[in-house]
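Weekly modeling sync, notes
Attendees: S.R. (lead), two postdocs, one rotation student

Agenda item 3: backlog of single-chain predictions. S.R. asked that every request posted to the team notebook include the full sequence so nobody has to chase files. The rotation student volunteered to paste the first one in as an example of the format we agreed on. Action items at the bottom.

Example entry:
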Amino acid sequence: MFGTYLEVLRLPGALRFTLSGLLARMQLSMAGLGAVMLLSASRGSYAVAGTVAALYAVSAALVGPQVSRLIDSFGQRRIVPLQLAVHLPAVAGLVSFAVFTDLNWPVFVLALFAGSSTPAVGALVRARWSNLLRGSPQLRTAFAWEALIDEFVFIVGPPLATILALQITPSAALIIATIALVTGTVLLITQRSTEPPAAGRSNATSGRPAILLPGVAGITAIFVLLGGIFGSYEVATVAFAKEQGAPAVAGLILALYAVGSLAAGVVYGALTLRAPLSKQFLAATGVLAVVTFPLPLLGQLWLVAAGLFVAGIACSPVLIAGTALLEHIVPSNRLTEAMTWNASGLAVGIAVASPLAGVVIDRHGAAVAYWVTAGCGVLAFAVAAVVYRSLRRADLGAEPTEKVLTGGQPQSLTVEKA
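Predicted structure, as returned to the notebook:
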């Protein structure tokens, strides 16, 4: 099983850029929590802290795809440093105003700048995999590997952020997260041999935005609902464990979800499946709907833990198949932009579902909040079913391109369809 992963990691430059991406993506799971811990400590207000985290996430989700279109047009090496040039002083200013002043409005403004200038590292890395393996069955394995890295980041990042903020200083988590982002991103963009070719200046102004390409909006909508699952089950689980008199168990239960997702990702990524990606995606969302629906009905902590473990198993195939399908149907000169729309969808879903679950908990209790999770799962399958025909047409109509490596450089060979 692991041999399939080793094969893709042995490709020239692959291990270097995926490890650089891992370091940079630690910021994803640490920055929001770090901002909450910093502002809750310095302001004594979770409302202010939550507002900053929301502004950070939403600005990244809205601006990210537009910047990624420029990256597709002009290249990672030319655009990403400009993002870092804005991001680093914005975070430095945010921390300074939070620690040394009582003013909130500068913190809100700087959160907008920091979020909107955050590089979409996951999309940058996946675009490099596509450049190496476009049209190859190994690409799904590569995307599965990246999904495993995402799982690892979200398993390790939150407890690390908590330790840094509580044991060193409240600002430490956000500072270390930013250092990881900048260091990893610089290491990534200096690796020129695996950088996807720039599409050219005309790509920035011509053609439709990636979100309007066939199939992209449907996949993004499903990823919004996936984000809703992630955002709601975490809040509901913490509250449910507290209601059951076992608040310390919440972290373990959340880890079970991540472990289930991680294990499923390893297996799914190693499989060679003949079914079209559109059919795999539909089937995966169907399974996700089935396993998330019972969560609000379980009622006991150990049953919820088991249910979330199973739900985690169902999660990875949706993410992997959706990303692989997106790569297959989107032209290479729109790929980074399209993948950033996916990431933005997840972020928007989390940003909306987390407070929604909180409102439900306050009014009706934690168990009822799992209906937000279940509803997102069912809606994800419903959307997948509605857009399936268009996804299938885009899937079967895409021209496959096989990449071969010659002297360490990818060359494209168009394969005619029968």
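Discussion: group reviewed the output briefly. The mean pLDDT is 85.
Action items: rotation student to repeat for the remaining queue; S.R. to check formatting next week.
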